[in-house]
Specification:
Pfam families: Abhydrolase_1. The protein has about 280 residues and is an alpha/beta fold. Helix content is about 35%, strand content about 25%. A hairpin with a 5-residue loop joins strand 1 and strand 2.
Length: about 280
Amino acid sequence: MMQQAFVLPLEDSFVIRGDVHTTAETGEKQPLLIFCHGFKGFKDWGSFPYVADALATKGVTVIRFNFSANGVGESLTEFDELEKFGINTYAREVADLNVLMRAILERELPLAEHFDTEQIYVMGHSKGGGDAILFGANHPAIKGIITWNGIAQVNLFDEDLRQELKDTGIAYIMNGRTGQRMPIMPEVVEDVDQNVEAYDLLKKVSQLDKSLLIVQGEKDFGRLVHGAKLLKEAYPQAILHWIKEADHVMNTKHPFTGTSAELEEAIDVTSQFVLQSTRK
């Protein structure tokens, strides 16, 4: 197993931090999977490094990375850049993915000699599943899209938060794990409201010309369980794989204390999807 970190500087103080995981041998190329974390997530959350290692062991090179405004800085595990979290939009996240893809295609990342750039897939967990669809549907280099407990609609903001924004110019959400009040600035909600059609995930998948795997835990939040069904209805060619007893994080936790049967099932079905698609 080889793992190497990288940093892609952006404008101002924004950076994309990531890691490449591969088991490819000298001269070998493998299909590449880009992994997107979700809302209040980060690349080193709980099981994510383990997932990258496990997929690499099965022959899929993985890039896991932090979106540049996810709120986690050099610490890699703490929300120590909340001012960035507060202005993070889908537009910024898709732009991050475009920067990352350019670095992949121009072979600027570590271990790039092992990337099969004809076989690039994008996967996202939770809100990251929405990013995977928004980016993957439009980018010609993406061969397939995978969502793990992914969203089916991008508006995550209720009326109370919207009213708080109108009243004070800033809203807050609680991070139940850390106890932090995490800011949401007006541009985040405006990005959603001003791009209703462009961010219509069901419409995006209905027009796909590439493969889609939907991995969904049966014990996840109801709106996501329902959303998985809507994604499948919108794109009947999609593979919808239900994982019995799986919650939103496949029955794992942060800090990571070990894998679960549900997580292993998600890893297995994901690697099979990538490797079988690659052979076609």
